[in-house]
Amino acid sequence: MLEGVLGTKYPKLKKDSARFLEDIGRAINEGYVEFVGNATLRGGDEVYKVYRGNGITISTLQDGEWHTMLESFKGMDNDWNFIP
């Protein structure tokens, strides 16, 4: 999904994992995705920062560590419980 948004290829995720994580930060910092709120997932207690844009949803822990990437508004992305 990130390849489609940024146009960057990750042929071997194990080898390219550092670049992949840097690009997640780039997607957030450069506005490819925008912060939409804090939320829990599937009734869990952990609160994540949720970002959406360009058809993807990226979530991070509160300290900014990457958590997951989902296709926006499909499957598990519909299970976010946003905190007012």
Structural account:
The protein is α+β, with helices and mostly antiparallel strands and 84 residues long. Helices cover 26% and strands 33% of the residues. It contains 2 helices and 5 strands. The protein has helices at 2-6, 13-29; strands at residues 34-41, 48-53, 56-60, 66-71, 80-82. The chain has a 5-stranded antiparallel sheet with strand order 4-3-2-1-5, covered by helices on one side. The longest helix has 17 residues, at 13-29. The mean pLDDT is 88.
How large, in whole angstroms, is the Cα Rg? 13 Å
Classify the beta-strand content into a percent band.
25-35%
How do the strands line up in the largest sheet? 4-3-2-1-5
Query: Uncertain segments of ≥5 residues (pLDDT<50)?
Result: none
Mean pLDDT: 88
Which properties best describe this structure?
alpha+beta, 2 helices, globular, single chain, 26% helix, 84 residues
Task: Write a concise synopsis of the structure shown.
With 84 residues, this protein is α+β, with helices and mostly antiparallel strands.
